Amino acid sequence: MSINITLKLISIKYGCTICHALGIPGKKCGTIIFTAEELSNCRDIATMQFCANKLDKKDFFGKSDPFLVFYRSNEDGTFTICHKTEVIKNNLNPVWQSFTIPVRALCNGDYDRTVKVDVYDWDRDGSHDFIGEFTTSYRELSRGQSQFNVYEVKYKHSKNNNKKIKETKKLNSLDQQIIKMTQLNFTVAIDFTASNGNPSQPTSLHYMSPYQMNAYAMALKAVGEIVQDYDSDKLFPAYGFGAKLPPDGKISHAFPLNSNTEDPNCVGIEGVLEAYFQSLRTVQLYGPTNFAPVINQVARCAAEVTDGSQYFVLLMITDGVISDMAQTKEAVVNASSLPMSIIIVGVGPAEFDAMEELDGDEVRVSSRGRFAERDIVQFVPFRDYIDRSGNQVLSMARLAKDVLAEIPDQLLSFMKTRGIEPRPPLPATSDSPSMSTTTTATTTPAPKQRNTHA
């Protein structure tokens, strides 16, 4: 697709807008808009740094992943993007890296021209959530010498983001109600079958490298560190399955990682990781890969509290095909009537086609002619979320965001089937989200840099 337009036409139309429809025969593809404005001879360069405090929480599990978008105002009243910051993961009080921008790009050399800043919560699919906005000017940014400029981030309703706003308000409301009335109980189960490889070898999925986390530790930390914020006592039952235990070599499919059969709880996610690594040093990886025992273990606990005050989330991390598929389906069908969800993370290069049967997004799981009352299983292969540059933090953030996406709906579906009404949401606080900046301005011909704190 191409458009022929001359600079002469644009210059003749200075101060106006030229619109051209894009498309191919029989199909509309949008509109391209040209505007012309005389550039100033301003050669100033600004270096700025922004931080924020108490931003709105847009993600049900975890916090927001905020970034800033800067807009230059045009003479016709429209705005043009001139800069985007990096995304700060899982942080409501972010500090973005400083950046340098020509003042001409920011405001065309007009120090009093409006500069608009939008704050967004990053989403992997590109449907970023609008958090709020504020306006300023370059003169205001560069005015202060000894203090920060502070801006209130305001949420503005507009036709363009009407749909997104409605979705976000709905999520926030449910978030508050569920947090107030429901205690999450988080349980971990880790695959200790021999197909993972010898933990002492670098090729093993359980390899304990002194330099980086293995796939099991990454998956556990990514999901666990978010869920633990919703678990008040921070005590997590943690189990292993598919290993021979000392001293008699008995095979177990639900052994406590901390070796305490009376109390399998670990303190915090760090406690779970410590127990996991200790188990790798003491048990023998074996098999088969049986899921049903640990699912039934958690289901028995969930069956004791069905009034909506507690909800159980089981994270299972595995490298291979389930050996007891029939028993696992039956366990899932039985658990579907309980306040319980199951997250399965597949690690390693194996094919996980059979796992999709348990993830009832398309076809509800069935066993012996009985269908699951509701979808309670979310399965994801970790390899789909690994960052190509090797950034483990980014890989973990991607995994956590997607793997926890279905939990709110699964929790609510249980409440609806039982007629459990959420309590009123928490009252709004008077604290407003704010944005602080520091600005350094320089003029290119001058050898010295003028430091200002906006």
Q: How would you characterize the overall build of this protein?
A:
The protein has 454 residues and is of the alpha+beta class. It has three domains: 1-36, no CATH class; 44-153 and 432-452, C2 domain (Immunoglobulin-like, Sandwich), CATH 2.60.40; 177-417, 3-Layer(aba) Sandwich (Rossmann fold), CATH 3.40.50. The protein contains ten helices and 23 strands. The strands form six sheets. Strands 10, 11, 14, 15, 17, 18 and 21 form a seven-stranded mixed sheet that branches. Strands 3, 6, 9, 22 and 23 form a five-stranded antiparallel sheet that branches. Strands 5-4-7-8 form a four-stranded antiparallel sheet. Helix 7 packs parallel to helix 8. It is elongated and about 80 Å long. The two termini are 45 Å apart. Pfam families: C2, Copine. Residues 185-386 form the VWFA domain. One of its GO terms (cellular component) is plasma membrane.
